[in-house]
Specification:
The chain is α/β, with parallel strands linked by helices. The protein is built from 11 helices and 15 strands. The protein has 2 domains: 207 residues, D-Maltodextrin-Binding Protein, domain 2 (3-Layer(aba) Sandwich), CATH 3.40.190.10; 78 residues, 2-Layer Sandwich (Alpha-Beta Plaits), CATH 3.30.70.260. The chain is 31% helix and 31% strand. Strands 1, 2, 3, 4, 5 and 11 form a 6-stranded mixed sheet that branches. A 5-stranded mixed sheet has the order 8-7-9-6-10. β3 and β4 form a beta hairpin. The protein is elongated.
């Protein structure tokens, strides 16, 4: 069967029809009442890695799943939720570039971060055997991180899906006993599925860093803040980036990350995103002041407590 025929097979069509029919939960517009659990928006389904990271950052939070990252930020900006938890980079796949753009576009502030060890599992309906699996669904990044396992099982055809936990949800809803999903242990437990093979990722050094984000008007000073994230653009002149980074270096700031994104509508102009380790928030403010003279635009995305907890 050709790849095109496989994509048009009834089983695959059922999966993608279910995906297309999915929408944001009806209660996403409800405002949190005083004393209620913090409402936290994530991109993806319950049982996803974002769900796990959100509960790690805010134990006991009420999770509000959203289909798209843009919907997460819309829910936060509108006040439909109190906070959002988003992946910002993976140790193997790199940065989640869309989230840098969304952080800049919205009036939000990074208030915390956490690292999550990513463990992928092959998940199927209870009682299924690994030899019966013909189709494997998951997010494209998860599929890419399990190439060796999939190559060792040529009878399994991989298909990209919008979410790791979402692939388990659809598996259970459709009761397809020839299909499996790649997702977290939490997703298997949440939807009543069964893990056929644990830890199938190619590289065990697989971590994702997540940001806790709030509306800027609701942001509070973070105790023990020792890290800041900035976005800036530069004047178009030789050496402008070097000059800006030298200002941070003079203060003894440790630049732990730098990322560039194109300015929409302005070819060959860029926004730079940097993470800096700092001694105190005041130290970070001095860095901001030093950068201003070099930058056409400068935005503090947040001051927060950095983490090395790779749980």
């Amino acid at each position: 069967m050709s790849a095109e025929q496989k994509q048009d097979s009834p089983a695959v069509q059922r999966w993608y029809a279910a995906r297309a029919a999915r929408s944001m939960p009806a209660n996403v517009s409800a405002r949190n009442s005083a004393g209620a659990a913090t409402r936290v928006a994530i991109q993806g389904e319950p049982g996803s890695f974002s769900h796990e990271a959100a509960l790690k950052l805010l134990p006991g939070a009420e999770i509000v799943p959203c289909s798209l990252s843009a919907e997460v930020f819309e829910a936060l900006s509108s006040g439909a939720v109190d906070a959002a938890v988003i992946p910002i980079e993976n140790s193997l796949a790199g940065s989640v570039l869309e989230h840098f753009d969304l952080l800049l576009q919205h009036d939000v502030t990074v208030q915390g971060e956490t690292l999550l060890r990513i463990r992928h599992n092959l998940i199927a309906l209870p009682g299924c055997s690994i030899g019966a699996i013909q189709r494997v669904f998951s997010h494209p990044v998860a599929l890419a991180q399990c190439r060796k396992f999939l190559a060792a099982h040529p009878g399994m055809e991989a298909f990209a899906f919008y979410d790791t936990a979402g692939s388990v949800k659809q598996l259970v809803e459709l009761q397809d006993r020839q299909a499996a999903a790649i997702a977290s242990r939490a997703a298997a437990a949440y939807y009543g599925a069964e893990i056929l093979r644990k830890n199938i990722e190619d590289n065990p050094e697989n971590y994702t860093r997540f940001f806790l984000v709030r509306r800027s008007q609701d942001a509070v000073e973070v105790s023990g803040a020792n890290k800041m994230s900035l976005a800036f653009s530069l004047e178009n002149r030789p050496g402008s980036l070097v000059s800006a980074l030298l200002e941070l270096s003079k203060l003894g700031t440790n630049l732990s990350k730098i990322e560039s994104r194109p300015v929409h509508g302005k070819p060959w102009e860029y926004i730079f995103y940097v993470d800096c380790q700092m001694e105190t928030p005041e130290h970070g403010q001095r860095g901001m002041e030093a950068l201003k003279k070099h930058c056409a635009m400068l935005k503090l995305l947040g001051c927060y407590a950095g983490t090395t907890d790779q749980g």
